[in-house]
Amino acid sequence: MGMISGKEYKQRLDKQQAEIWIDGEKVCGDISKHPAFKGTVASQALLYDQQHQEELLNTMSFISSDGSRIGTSFLQPKTKEDLTKRRQMIQTWAKTTAGLLGRSPDYMNTVLMTFAASASLLEGKENCFPKHLTNFYETAREKDLSFTHTFINPQVNRSILYFEDSDKPIAAKVIEENENGIVVHGARLLATQGGMTDEILVFSPGGITDEANAFAFSIPSNTDGLKFICRESFVQGESTYNYPLSTRFEEMDSIVVFDHVLVPWDRVFFYNNLEVANSFKNESAFLPFTLHQVVSRQVVKAKFILGVAESIVNTINISEYEHVRTKVTEIITAVETMEALLLKSEYNAELDEFGLMRPELSPLQVANSQFPSIYPRITEIIQLLGSSGMVSIPTESSFHSDIRKDLDQYLQSATKNAYDRVKLFRLGWDLTMSPFGTRQTQYERFFFGSPERLLTEVYGGYNTKPFVDWVEEFLS
């Protein structure tokens, strides 16, 4: 089968009728038509369609052994050229979404690719099924499946020594196993695009102390007993003039409830194995390749913000001010630094123990640890450059009313008429100040976990020995 089209993606979502709840009501009918979800579904449908564009075909796909075209996000890179191709594909999709879809299909496709490539880590270990993992990867890439995922347990008690002691499970756990599979009950956070994908991939987050919480599997989003409970939607209207981003890229986040969910044996990758649950993610190829995808997207997102910032500067003619130049230069510095770290990781890539051309981890960790502080600052710069103009933003309907003449007179700018000026400033507002925009900031702050932990991991994984040896040699 190979790559699907946007139409096929929509049809599959509508057909599966996953159990999704929002504002206390169960979603009924086609999800592709629901106000809270249709914008993102349509945007991702465009991504799937891009895979079939003739001029992008070699970037967006590769030919499998059976001759079918497979999306490049499933590609296990064996050469530096393959790694470059993966980045070009990721950034093609990211440019279409301005980097605002953090869970575009290539993210989870990358995760599954790395897990399958690392399946040998499961061989010969108790309650582990490496063949299930590799077989499922083959199925996913041949059917071009889409995924959400959940790694995090509910925030009941975040103290270091907390152990759940409840009659009814809170964190999802295995409560039974039978001839058909394992039965999971409880909840998990935080599934972005929960219910908006073919499958949900569930992995233990590490730091597990109870075997019942130690598992990995993937199941269809419409599995019996599986429920997605959404936060409120940040889609505030259908006008792309008023809400240029939230109408198209509101991914939605959800709590995932497993109510005695049966996971068939052929979908179980491991279970009831503490050692594997606590080590597999870190010992696998997961980290370097997922960071490569993440940083590739973040570079595009930073470039988009630079474009918005400079557009505001040009529109109201403020480039002569020194503080304006220094602010925009901060964004330029962020873009160039992130991109340099990304390209360095590819330049120093080497074949790993799984036969993958692995990007160098350290520069990707540095980029990923810096972006949680970079992103709030560069979005703040948009707010500062726009100043009161970020507040004086009438809606599209205002320009089709009796006050149009006033708006045209008083909201024009040095280089744009009032309608176009407000359109740009509404973009800046939706990017940085709307509910959608502030969620983006929080999302990037914690995209890969606690910023403090990310910095600690950079220190713990960085090889400082050559520099220490140099100092010792210098002193001697």
Describe the model.
There is one protein chain. This protein is an alpha+beta fold. The chain contains 16 helices and 14 strands. The chain has two domains: 6-280, Butyryl-CoA Dehydrogenase, subunit A, domain 2 (Beta Barrel); 285-475, Butyryl-CoA Dehydrogenase, subunit A, domain 3 (Up-down Bundle). β13 (350-351) and β14 (357-358) form a beta hairpin. The mean pLDDT is 94.
Write the layout of secondary structure elements.
Blueprint: H1 6-16, E1 20-22, E2 25-26, H2 38-50, H3 57-60, E3 61-63, E4 69-71, H4 80-96, H5 105-117, H6 130-143, E5 147-150, E6 173-178, E7 181-192, E8 199-203, E9 215-220, E10 226-230, H7 246-249, E11 253-264, E12 268-271, H8 274-283, H9 286-316, H10 322-347, E13 350-351, E14 357-358, H11 361-386, H12 404-410, H13 418-432, H14 435-445, H15 451-461, H16 465-475
Parallel strand pairs: 1-10, 5-8
Antiparallel strand pairs: 1-2, 3-4, 6-7, 7-11, 8-9, 9-12, 10-11, 13-14
Helix pairs in contact: 1-2, 4-9, 5-6, 5-9, 9-10, 9-11, 9-13, 10-11, 11-13, 11-14, 11-15, 13-14
